[in-house]
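In the previous chapter we treated chains in isolation. Here, by contrast, the input contains three separate entities that must be folded as one system, with a combined length of 623 residues.
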Amino acid sequence: MLHLILFVIFAGICAGGALNMLLQKHPINSALSLIVVMVSLAMLYMLLGAEFVAAIQIIVYAGAIMVLFVFVIMLLNAGEDEQTKGSRVAMLFGFPSLLVAAGVLVYTLVLRGGNTASLAIGQFHGTAENISDLLFKEFILPFEVTSVLILIAIMGAVLLARKGGTE
Amino acid sequence: MNSDALTFLLTAVVKILITIFVLLTAVAYTVWLERKVVGRMQNRWGPSRVGPFGLLQPLADGLKFIFKEDLTPPYVHHFVYILAPMLAVVMALTAIALVPIGPSITIGHITTPIQITGVNDANGGSSDIGIGLLILLGITSISVYGVSLAGWSSNSKYSLLGSLRASAQMVSYEIALGLSLVGVLMISGTFSLREIVRQQQGGFWHWNIFGGFQFVAFFIYIMAAYAETNRIPFDLPEAETELVAGYHTEYSAMKFAMFFMAEYANMITVACVASVIFLGGWSGPIPSFLPPILQSILPVFYFLLRVFFFIFLYIWIRGTLPRFRYDQLMAFGWKFLLPLAIANIVITAFVIAVRG
Amino acid sequence: MVPLSFYLVLSAFLFACGVCGFLIKRNIISLFMSIELMLNAVNLTFVAYAAFWQRLSGHIFVFFVMVVAAAEAAVGLAIIIAIFRTRETLNVDRVNLLKL
C-alpha cells in the first residue's frame, strides 16, 4: 500500500515535470522541470531497489549534466522560444501524435503485455558491492571502452571550445 | 500503520526538530565565533557591546535581517530569483540528516540511533543507509544550482560573472572532494557512514587519518571543502573587493540571510563529515561509572569537540591567508588536487592488495 | 505492490513526451533536453525490468547509458556553443545552411 502511494506521488511529479518541460517557453524553465523529472526518477529507482543507480542518477545526471545545460543557457543568454510556422505545424501534429503514441504503448504493454507480476519494496537490492561485482568481472570490456569514450568526449569538447574554431 | 512504524515516525520527527534547532543556533553562533576569532587575530575586539562578550550579536543580526526591506529589483526572473536561496538553504540543511552524531540512545523503552537516517536493525544494533556517502555527494552536487541560478536570475553583470565563477569552482572541486574520500571507502569497504565510524573505534591509532594513513586524503578533503563552501582562500566569487558581492549582489534582507545561513551550514556539514570519515566520529574514553544516559551523550560531546576543531581551523585560515586569483584557483583544483587524489587512491589500493 | 506495467506506462509516457518535445521545440538546447528525457525514460525501463527479473545487468546498462549521455551532453553543448558563436542564433530553423 505504501509502495503504491509513493509510486503514485513520484510518478505524478515525474509526468508533471515532463509535461511542464514541453509547455514552457523559456529554456531555463524547461531545464528546471527536467531536473525535477530526474530527481523523481531517482526516487523511483530507490523504490525499485536500485539504490546505487539512484545515487548515481542524482550525482551524474541532476548534479553534473543538468548543471552543464544550465551553464550553457546562462552563457548564451537563451531567450524565449520563437514560434515559427514550422513549429506551429509541428505543434498541431505533435500533441495528438503524443497522445496516440502513448495510447498505443499503453495498450501494448498493459493489455497485451502478458505476465505483469508485482514488485515489492526491499525484494531486490542493487547495492554497490553487487554492481561492482558484475561491472568488473562480466562487463569489464564495456567498462574499459566507456573510459576511452569519455576520453574522446573530453578531447572533442576541449577542441570545440577553443576560440579560433577549426584550426 | 502499526505501532512500530508510528514510533519510528515520531522519533524521526523529534530528532529532526532537535537537529534543525541545534543547527540553526550553531550557524548563528559560528558567525559570532568567526567575528570574534578573526577580530582577535587582527588585534581588535570583535563584537563586544551587545550582551556579555557580544553573545547576543547573532540575535541583533537576525532582527536586523528580519526588519530590513525585502527589495526585488524590477528586471529579475522572478521564479528563479526566489527559488535560488531556498534551494541553497534546503540543500545545506538536508545534508545533516545523514551524519551520525552518536551511538544509540535509550530513553524509556525507545532505543534510537543519534542520526536522523539511522534505524535499529534486526539484531539489536543500529544501521543507516547503505549509500550514505553517495547521497551526501549528490546533495553537494545539487547545491551548485543555488549559486548559479541566483547569479543568472539577478539580471546583472556582476552577479552573472560571480555565479559563473562560483559554480565552475564548485563543480571542479567536487571531483577532488569525491576522490579524496575513495581511499577511506576502500579501507572501510562500505558507503555507510555509521559503519565507517564503527570501524574507527577503540583508540586514536584506529582513526582513518592515523591508522589508515589517509593524511594526504585529509589534506585534499580540507582544501576541496574550503573551495566547495566558497571560503577563504577560495572565496573569489563573493569577495567584496572583487565583484561587488558576487552572486548575491542583488539580494537583500531575508534572502541574503538565507545564503549566509547556507554557507555556514555547509561549513558545519563539511566539518561533521570530516570528523566522521577521518577523525573517528565519536570515539573517546567513556568511563563506565556514568549512568547509561550520560554514556550515550558523552560520545556526542566528543563528536562536537572534533566539529569545533574543524570550524576553528576554517576561521583560523580565514584570518591568515590571502585569496587565490581565479586562474590559480582552477589550476590548483585540476592540476594539483586531482592528480594527488588519484595517486592517493592508487597507493591505498596497492597497500590494501599487498596486505590482504 | 506495484505491477510492472505501471512503471512501463510511465516510461512510455516520458519517452513520448521526449519525442514530442523533439518535434515541437525550436531552441537547440530544448531539443537536446528532450533527448535527455528520452534517455531517462529508457533508463527507467531498464531498472524496472532488472527488478522484475532480479538480475543486475539492467543496472549495469543504466550505468553505461548514463556515461554515454554525459559524454554526449559535453560534446553536444560544445557544438551548440560553436554554432552560437558563428551564427548568433539558437533557433534550429535558422541553422539551415552548411556553410554561412
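The mean pLDDT of chain C is 89. Strands of chain C lie at 2-3. Compare these points with the single-chain example from earlier in the chapter.
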